[in-house]
Here is the input.
Amino acid sequence: MSFQPNPGDEVVINDIAYTIGQHPAAPGLAYAQAGRQGIVYQLLPRNASLHGAKALKVFFPKFRIPAMVYQSEHMESYSELPGLQVCKRDVLTPERNGALIGKHPDLLYAVLMPWVQGQTWFDVISDQRQLTAEESLKLARALAGTGSAMEQRGLAHCDMSAPNVMIPFFSEVENLGKTSAVELVDVEQMYGSKMDRPDALLAGSPGYAAHRTVHSGLWSSYADRFAGAVIIAEMLSWSDPVIVEKAWGESYFDQHEMQTVSERYYAMRESLEKRWGSKLSDLFIRAWESHDLSSCPTFGEWYVALAAVDVDQANAAAAVTSEEEAANPSEADVNLKKSSEPVSEPVNTQDGNRPQTPHSPDQEAVVNRLFLQARALEDEDKPAAALEVYRSLYHFIPHNSAMQMEVEAAIKELDAKLNPKEDTDKPVPVPFYRSKKFMISSAVLIVLLAGGVPTVKILADQAEVKQKEQQEATRLADIKAAEEAEAAKAAALKQQEEQEKQKAAEAAKLDAEEKKKLAEAKQKEAEAKKKEEERKALQAKYDKQAKYEAYLVKQEQQKKEAAKRAQQEKYDKQAKYEAYLVWKKENDAKLAKQEAERKAAAEVKRQQEIAQKAALKKKRAQNVVTLIAHYNKTYNAQKGRKIENAEAYARDFKNLYNTDASYFKGVGKVAARMSAINKFLSNTSYTLPNL
Here is the structure.
């Protein structure tokens, strides 16, 4: 028989009796929660106290694995960690719970564990329940602490998502134990060095699974890092009303925009930086831009960063934002309207630009917000971040529009700022011996030396003339004449050398002119060849551009067709889903009606049984009185020597007694009277006792 309990039904597990709890929002139905692997029922102790409540997880057939016993034995030691109290588990086995499993085969390898009070993080997001800064920080620290403690022991949940994160902090039931503000549930996929790899691996939950690993199963010590980073960022940002309003639905991010540049991503990043500081924002960016799970920040890094932040900073940032919005309620709208005005310009096909395609209002809003975000990053002197946003924005803006030209100019300016080119126009250093200063100094020195030699010689000659003026007069005249002759000869030789040098210079000049003409001819030939090559390259570029434009047109057409098919599939799924909802509503109403009829019939039957029991009780009481009366009549007849009358009364007593002997046997002294009557009927001389 399948396990489909009703509220109040009793279940005995390991010699302890429990009753099925009643759903608080649906009186008359069992308190049950369905998950991906099974259904969890609430079990209450006999005193109906919620503090001793247990959770009974009944798995679907695919997940009823005998190895669950071994896994639960190893998990029990982890139940002392904060946030992992559900690791204290007891598995129902045929050896210990054979009778119960024989009655309900669905309970094979079911798990009994503590019941965690409170909402799930999924409920908080779905209800768009805004938190205070203190609540956000407390929840984020609790989750980071739990994740850090698990990482230190080589553990990972492997399916961390909003439905699997319980928030006992918001429970209306008073917490008598040491329950963490955050508790993890659905730990059957937990990774550990002593754990066996599950046969069926989960690939993460939408809105929390990294898109690069979403198609493969998650089972490693790094499995929780990306999803944990997203949930911590959600918890911190859920005190910001802007983030709460932008939520996709059951999670903040849509699965299709995971690890992509989107409006929600920039909004959360900006909120984290303004409210909690750049350290937490940088950790979120690292996780979002990671290429694998191992490069995501550890929970320990999150915990250290969260321990250093002050909740007053978030409150102050929220107050400043509120004041700015109150002071300039329409400034953002005006800027958005200006930047979103359509620009229509003719398309220059020679420049290789694609024709403009119409953009949806949602896409235009995203483009405008990204543009304003890039401008803000420029104003904050963050060129690298602004360049990244501009480059992402460039692929979504209309071509040949004013915004495209402005974005192109901004990209070139920021790229030049971040990657400056080396200055190739710097003058080549001149050797010191060829510098103008050195040459002038050398010339001055030569003049000084040339002037100093004759001066010394004249002084020496004057001293000698004073001593030997008479003796040397004739010799000096002869020397002077010889020197003049030598000078004339040297002048003639010098003139001849000058003429020869002039002839050689003219010959070298003619040779240089000839070489120059030859070089100019070669240069013209090379320029003509280069122009021809440039013309061919330009023609090839035009041909390639034409092919590229044709390819883009084809791609655009394919995109439109794919979008049309996806939209049609979406409409078909929606129609099927709506039909399913109608059927489900009718079926639920039918089942509810049947259940109500069954309960009404059971109540009528119960009332009938009560009435029958009351009538039987009344009749038995009357029969007891009659029996006593028969006995008394028999006793009195014997005393009055009326033996025949006494025998008649005795037989009446015996006949009435035998109609319900099992009951009369236990009532007062009726059994003793019956014994005396039997003795009297067998022997009339027997004297009846006065009973």
